[in-house]
C-alpha cells in the first residue's frame, strides 16, 4: 500500500537554543513532521533531551506530528512519558526492551503510532513477528547515536527487504529511513522503498531549509 511521502527533519542538528522557532521554520519550509532523537548515554553513547522538550514544543504551538525516536534502555517508562508529552509516533529499538510485543502494544494503548527501529546490524526478520503491532518500520542507515554520519550503503538492501515484507503483509505500515540521507542519495533510498525520510544535517546545515526540502522532494519523485 503506497503511503504519502513524508520528510521528517531531525532536530538533532538544529539550534537547540531556538528549538521552537527552528521547528516553525522547517514546517513552514515544507517539512511534514518533526523527528526528535532521544539518547540516554546508555543505549547509545550520546545524551540529548527528555519528554519535557516534547511537551515544550507542543506548548509552544507545534501541531505537526512529532516522531519520537527512542534510543534509550530501558524504554517502557519513557514510552509513557513521551505519550503524555504529546508524541505522535514513538519508535523503539528491539534491543532496548525485554518484551518487544508488550512495549509496542503499550505505545498503541497510549494512543500513539508504534514504530520499530532496525539498526544496520539487525535483521529485518525481527520485524516479521510483530508486524501487526506496527504503524512504522524504521531502517537505520547509520549506527544510532550521532547526526552527520555517512549513509551505510548496504542498508539499501535492507530497505528493499523491508518493503517486500510490508507489501506482502498488506498492512499500512510506513517505511522510514534515518541517517545520512542527503539530496544526492535520497532517490536511491526512495527507489529501495522508503516513504518516510529523516533528514538532519542536510537540512539544518543548509542556508535555505525550503530550497533543500524542495530538492529532496524533487529527487524523491524523480527517483
Ligand atoms: O537517529 C539519528 C542518529 O542516531 C538521527 O535521526 C540521524 O542521524 C539524522 O541525522 P543525519 O541526517 O544528520 O544523519
Ligand atoms: Fe533518529
TrEMBL record:
In alphabetical order, the GO MF annotations are: D-ribulose-phosphate 3-epimerase activity
Q: Which reaction does it catalyse?
A: D-ribulose 5-phosphate = D-xylulose 5-phosphate
Among PANTHER family, the record links this protein to:
RIBULOSE-5-PHOSPHATE-3-EPIMERASE
Q: Which UniProt keywords apply?
A: Carbohydrate metabolism, Isomerase, Metal-binding
Cofactor(s) this protein cannot do without: Mn(2+); a divalent metal cation; Fe(2+); Zn(2+)
Q: Which family does it belong to?
A: Belongs to the ribulose-phosphate 3-epimerase family.
Query: Whose protein is this, by species?
Result: Gilvimarinus japonicus
The UniProt function text for this chain reads: Catalyzes the reversible epimerization of D-ribulose 5-phosphate to D-xylulose 5-phosphate.
Q: In which pathway does it act?
A: Carbohydrate degradation
Q: What is the protein name for this chain?
A: Ribulose-phosphate 3-epimerase
Amino acid at each position: 500500500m503506497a503511503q504519502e511521502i513524508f520528510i521528517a527533519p531531525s532536530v538533532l542538528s538544529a539550534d537547540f537554543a531556538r528549538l521552537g522557532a527552528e521547528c516553525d521554520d522547517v514546517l513552514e519550509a515544507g517539512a511534514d513532521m518533526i523527528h526528535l532523537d532521544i539518547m540516554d548515554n546508555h543505549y547509545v553513547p550520546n545524551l540529548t533531551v527528555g519528554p519535557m522538550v516534547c511537551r515544550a514544543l507542543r506548548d509552544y504551538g507545534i501541531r505537526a506530528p512529532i516522531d519520537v525516536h527512542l534510543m534509550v534502555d530501558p524504554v517502557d517508562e519513557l514510552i509513557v512519558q513521551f505519550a503524555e508529552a504529546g508524541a505522535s509516533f514513538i519508535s523503539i529499538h528491539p534491543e532496548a526492551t525485554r518484551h518487544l510485543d508488550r512495549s509496542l502494544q503499550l505505545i498503541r494503548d497510549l494512543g500513539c503510532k508504534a514504530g520499530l527501529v532496525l539498526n544496520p546490524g539487525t535483521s529485518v526478520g525481527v520485524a516479521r513477528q510483530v508486524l501487526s503491532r506496527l504503524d512504522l518500520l524504521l531502517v537505520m542507515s547509520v549506527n544510532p547515536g550521532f547526526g552527520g554520519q555517512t549513509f551505510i550503503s548496504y542498508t539499501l538492501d535492507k530497505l528493499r527487504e523491508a518493503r517486500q515484507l510490508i507489501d506482502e503483509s498488506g498492512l499500512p505500515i510506513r517505511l522510514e529511513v534515518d541517517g545520512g540521507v542527503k539530496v544526492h542519495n535520497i532517490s536511491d533510498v526512495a527507489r529501495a522503498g522508503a516513504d518516510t525520510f529523516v533528514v538532519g544535517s542536510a537540512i539544518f546545515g543548509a542556508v535555505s531549509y525550503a530550497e533543500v526540502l524542495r530538492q529532496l522532494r524533487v529527487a524523491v519523485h524523480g527517483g
